[in-house]
Amino acid sequence: MIIREATDADFDTLWPIIKPIVRSGDTYTIPVDTGKESAQRIWLEHPVKSFVAEEDGQILGTYKLNINHMGPGDHVCNCGYMVSPKARGRGVASAMCEHSQLEALKHGFKAMQFNMVVSTNIGAVRLWQKLGFEIVGTLPRAFRHPELGYVDGHVMYKWLAD
User: Fold this and answer.
1) What are the extents of the domains in the chain?
2) CATH class for domain 2-159?
3) Beta carbons of 10 and 49 less than 8 angstroms apart
């Protein structure tokens, strides 16, 4: 698997990965009715950088690296990760998260914060903890899950610099 910077030309391949994740409404705070053009702006135009994980020419997943705060908090970044359903369980999210931490350091960030890890997304919570992120706060009923109603959202954080 290689992880490389995403390009606009990748988006037609990324959209079938992003669309069902957004439409499900159970893990991301992106509106469920977000269209392809808006998603492309969110994923490729506004982040510091966006990346794809690919193997044998197939895109397996994607992530975006964002600045999380401005001014005195601009040393903290944020990332969002999406993996194709066909590639789940193959270590793609782990590889992208590890890659993103190195990229964050390259861009001068000292810490990474996930602002809303939905508590019912147990696989993500477990993976981020395995990779050294801590739950530093829980926001009660901060996420409106389409099936479970209002569920908690975790703020997860990791200091990256030595």
Assistant:
1) 2-159
2) alpha beta
3) no
